[in-house]
Design brief:
binds magnesium ion; four-stranded antiparallel β-sheet; 11 helices; binds adenosine-5'-triphosphate; six-stranded mixed β-sheet
Length: about 280
């Protein structure tokens, strides 16, 4: 192609560039393709797909029961898909359990938060990953370094601007919003590659929601991929780069927030708009 020819815009150029957010050359850090999963007679997932790239925030939207949490659970190794493929950094992976997903650097805040009521905030944050004390006796007796746990938990909680009662009191004494803030703090502390948050602001007030959204943006700036399930369009437009929409167990569209309107998203959620061609099922 001559220089002159290359400089002449051709019809479709603008559309092509719009579609290239983020660039298609980047290998997705996480991909789900054609995932199906039934629970008895309930077909929770029929054909769900999702692509997540490093340094982006992807919102996963859809009506109640659309299959969003189930899809996230398959990516977290909690639910085994009946069919379909999961790829991490382009390589197919089978997660036998949540430990495999954690090993792959995937951290998840579940919709039910998965906190243990009879444990303290710090114990919940470090559950299964407790640091041992430094001294030889601590090593020998496998004594947990409670001070380090408390300090690091406090830092993670401060980062998201949450106010919790004493970190050593039982989680059962916390409010719904405080529990949610703690679960988000835990994920942001451990997430190395990918952080998935299932409705992270559902129980939070305006101020706490604002902090969580800021943290999501900060994770993105650290090149972590963030997947956020949300019903809140305002939050989605504030932090997400793209939106994947699910309906009745299927991925029905993928939009960029820079190009889409709330109406476009709502139409896909409700089925007023036909499934978009952009899905990778
Ligand atoms: N363990 C299970 N056993 C039986 N049915 C299940 C199970 N988990 C999910 N389902 C069903 O699968 C469907 C999808 O559920 P899922 O929780 O993934 O939806 P969702 O999109 O996250 O909804 P919401 O917005 O209400 O959280 C629902 O019909 C639900 O009842
Ligand atoms: Mg859900």
């Amino acid at each position: 192609m001559t220089e002159q020819a290359a400089a002449v815009p051709r019809p479709g150029d603008v559309e092509r560039r719009r579609d290239e957010v983020p660039p298609p050359t980047t290998t997705p850090v996480l991909q789900a393709r054609g995932i199906a999963r039934s629970f008895g007679a309930v077909r929770a997932l029929r054909d769900a797909s999702l692509t997540l790239r490093r340094g982006e925030v992807m919102a996963l939207m859809g009506d109640n029961g659309a299959g969003k949490s189930t899809l996230v659970k398959t990516l977290a190794g909690v639910v085994t898909p009946d069919r379909g493929e999961i790829l991490v950094d382009g390589a197919p992976r089978r997660f036998a359990g949540p430990a495999d997903a954690l090993d792959a650097g995937i951290e998840t805040v579940y919709q039910d938060l998965s906190l243990i009521d009879s444990m303290s905030a710090a114990e919940n944050v470090f559950l299964g990953r407790e640091p041992l004390g430094r001294g030889p006796m601590s090593r020998l007796l496998r004594l947990v370094d409670r001070r380090a746990m408390a300090e690091r938990t406090q830092k993670a909680v401060d980062r998201i601007g949450a106010r919790l009662p004493s970190l050593s009191s039982h989680v059962s004494s916390m409010s719904g919003g405080q529990r949610q803030a703690l679960a988000v703090a835990r994920a942001t502390m451990w997430g190395r590659n990918i952080v998935m948050l299932d409705e992270p602001t559902a129980a939070l007030g305006v101020t706490e929601s604002g902090h969580v959204l800021e943290i999501i943006t900060a994770l993105k700036q650290q090149d972590i991929a963030v997947l956020m399930i949300s019903h809140n369009l305002e939050h989605v437009f504030r932090v997400a780069d793209r939106v994947t929409v699910m309906r009745q167990g299927r991925t029905v569209g993928e939009l960029t927030t820079a190009e889409a309107s709330s109406g476009d998203i709502v139409a896909l959620i409700t089925g007023a708009a036909p499934a978009a061609a952009a899905t990778e099922s």
